[in-house]
Amino acid sequence: MDDYMYQYHFNLNVLEVVLILKLRVAAYIRISKKEKEVNSISNQKDLIDYYIKDKEDMKIYNYYVDNGYSGTSFDRPELKRMLKDISNKKVDIVIVKDLSRLGRNYIEVGELLDSILPLYDVKLISINDNIDGLNDEEDSYLLKGLLNIYNESYPRDISNKVKTALTTKKINGEFVTSYAPYGYKKSRYEKNKIIIDTEAAKIVKMIFDNTEKGLSKKEIVDILNNKKIKTPMEHIKNTNEGKKWNLSMITGILNNKVYTGDLIQQKRKRISFKNHKFVKIKEDELIITKNNHIEIISKEQFERVQDIIKHSVKVNSNNEYDIFSGYLKCTECDSNLTIRKSKEYTYYACSSHVRKRGCNNKHTVRKDILEEKVITEINNRQVKKIDKLNRKYIFDLINMIYLNQDGSIKIEFKRK
After folding, report:
1. What is the mean pLDDT of the chain?
2. pLDDT tens digit string along 250-275?
3. CA 74 to CA 302: how far, in whole Å?
4. Run of H or E residues at 162
5. 279, 293 Cβ separation under 8 angstroms
6. So what's the pLDDT on residue 240?
7. How is the chain split among helix, strand and coil, in percent rounded to 5?
8. Bridge partner list, 10
9. 309: closest CA among 204, 207, 412, 211?
10. Which three-class secondary structure state does DSSP give residue 235?
11. Distance (Å, rounded) from C-alpha 402 to C-alpha 413?
C-alpha cells in the first residue's frame, strides 16, 4: 500500500476513505567531470529526498544518475533510461536540483520541457529554480526558457574563456599539452617549458640519422624492437608493458618539427563547446613559436629527411643518394628514371623500359647535361644566379623532371 495515500472526507456526517495513487517521481541527477562538490551526486540526492519527505502524495519511482557527463550533450545513458520510462508512462513527475542538471543545450532542453513532458502529462519540479509544474501557471515556462538560455550561455562563456587563456599561453611559447613530445620532458623549474630528455633524444636522433642513411621505416622499427627500446608512450608514462614500435610511430617522429626547436601548437580543435569532436587545423591557423627550445635535429637535417620521405629516395651502398633521386619520371609510363653508368658518363633511363615492362621510351639523358639544363632554367626564373646545383635548389624549386618520348626534358617548377 506504499503506492497509495489515504484521503478522508465527511459527506453528510459519513466518513469516506479514498485511496489515491501516489505520484511517481523520477529523480534526475547529473554531474560533469569538472563540477565541484556543491553539485555532487549525494548533495543532489539529499536535496531531492528532503524536498519530497513531507509530500505524502509523492513517491520516488527511481533515481537516474549520470555521473561524469556534460550538460551540453543529451547523449547520456540515464537520461535516456528516464525518457524511456516516461514514454512507457511509469513516471508522473521529474524532479531536479536545477534546470542545468537536465542540460545546458537550449534547444534540446526546450524540446524536453515544451514537447516531451507535456505529451505524457509529466510535470517538472526544479527545486532551486522554484519551478513547480504541479502548481505553477503556464507563464512559468517563460522563466524556464530564460533559464535554459542562461544554462547554455554559461558553458559557452566558460569554454571561450578557457580557450582564450590557452591560446594566449600558446602564443607566448608555453607548452600546455599534458605530455611532452617523445625526446623532451617538462621542466621541473620552468612551468610550461620543455627540455631535452637525453635518453629518448638519442633514439630520435638515431631514427633521423638512419633514415638519411637509407634505412626504411620497417628496418628502423625492427632495430628498435630487437633492442627492446620502450615505445614513446611507455617511456613517457614510465611503464614496461612490452609494447612494440610500429611504422606510424616512426612516421610521427620524422614528421614532427618540434625536434628542430620550433613549437607548433593548436594542430586540432573542438568543433564547439557542445560538440567535443576534434577537427584538423588549417596550416595558416597553427600557432608556431620559432626557436622555442633546444633542438634535437637541425632544420637542415629535418628538411633533407622530408625530401627523402616525399620522393622515396634510394640510397646507395656508400650512404649517398643521387642529386636527382625521386625527381625524375618518364612521361610515357610515369615510371621513375633509373641511374645508369657507362665508362664515360652517368645517365638516366626509364626503369620500365630498362626492365622491359612495356614502355617504349628508349631515350636517355646524361647527368651532366641535365644538371646544366636545370641550372639554366633556374637562373632564367630568379634574380640570384647559381653556377652549381645542389639538392636544396631542387627541393625548394622543382616538383618533377620528365623525360619525354622524343628525348627532350620537361621541368615542372613549384608555384611561387
Report:
1. 80
2. 999 999 988 998 887 765 555 444 44
3. 46
4. helix 140-171
5. no
6. 84
7. 40, 20, 40
8. 15
9. 211
10. helix
11. 11
